[in-house]
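Database export, one record per block. Field names are fixed; values are copied verbatim from the stored entry.
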Amino acid sequence: MAVARVKFLDKGEEDLIDQQSVECLETIGVKVKSDSVLKLLDRAGASVDHKTQIVKIHESLVKDALRTVPKEMTLHGRDPKHNLRIPVSSWPYVGTSGLGTYIVDIKTGKKRDSTVKDIADLVRLADALTGADYVQTSLTATEAPSQTHGLHELWTAFQNTTKHVQGVEIFNAEDARKQVELGALIAGSKEELKKKPHFTVIHCSIAPLMFERDAVEALVEFAKAGVAVTTMTMSLSGGTAPVTMAGTLVNANSENLASLVIGQAASKGARTIYCSSSTPVNMMTGMINYESVNQPLIASGLAQMAKRYGLPCMVGDWGLNDSEEPGFPHTFSETMGIALSTMSGTDMQGGIGALDNAKGMALEQEVIDAYVWENVRLHMTPFEISKNTAALDVIRQVGHGNTFLTNIHTARNFKKEIIMRDPVKGRFEKTISRSMVAEAREIALRLLKEHSVPQLDRSVLQQGNDIIRNHEKELMARK
């Protein structure tokens, strides 16, 4: 099938990034700040210096990990109609943004700290929007205890969607085990969760080339439980990675390969999704620069590397707004960058509803992003290119200088071959505009009023609440 894709690296450049990444892992290595994971990697055959915590990973270990990691998987939803099969054959699956700390209140228009109620609203709205394929936990439950807010966010998401859930906050290995317990309630058991993962998690390495203890020990727990780990690198050009494009790609690729090796050392066949949210540093502010030209090109390059290894991937972001207010502030050239990232060959992207470099979210923005995506993704509609669709017999039948308009072949095929954008949702696509915000607000409020998500069984709901409540009591007792 023919699908529109962009390509950034040629074959020789892909080879170079791969070779330099292997050399990086073999000669520089990664720092792993966990005794238990160091021992795990030692047993797996890596060269481990327990004193410095530096692990040098041989190319053979990378190749072994690439042999055992699943190349295909299904990410399950509570309703099977929302199951996601990756890798994709057309456009990527797009979900909400990750872990903002504030929301723009839909009634007052003012910024405020996010709550569990806000998470529930954003997730339930995404459940109603056809432009959102899955949900991330979206916001921080700021009223929850700091050590368990990730559990509250995950459990709230489970209750408010029948789509696949991607968790963003991991506190430590113990927290990971509790998240697995909650996921097992949705799947039916830990065995069913291992067979049919009802949630994925994002695990971040610390660029450059380091794994923090609590996070990497949590990665091991998820790998053992069969939960797909999305191994996000945030390699920042000029900050936590070399300022050059090639240096950033090598650093990000090396971290993903190291994460892959750790996951496979923990459990052969552990599900892994190659992931990056890498971008340059803004040299004037020191902040992440999502608006740079480099960002979608980094995403495109890393998507190619993931596909080179046969790995499902989540790179780049589908997000239309980096300002603090809902709307569509992008110029034509910035919109081109979004297209490059989206058409890179990635299987998944997050970002729906995000504001202010993912620090906040808005319900109106969630509607705008989802509506625009429904039109944009049509450019990645698969087309059959074959002798049959080349239709030489039809050309012969119609003859020279005549019309195909009245031919039966046209009548049978035009609906699937000619792709039309939705003009109603096209109203949301005006660049540098807030004109769609009022309509998006009305849509969000209507969907929140009308859309209902099937409730969890009462006993399951009680068990999940008890898992979180009892864990919080145990943590309090230790103080």
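Remark 1: Residues 65 and 261 are 6 Å apart (CA to CA).
Remark 2: The longest helix spans residues 245-266.
End of record.
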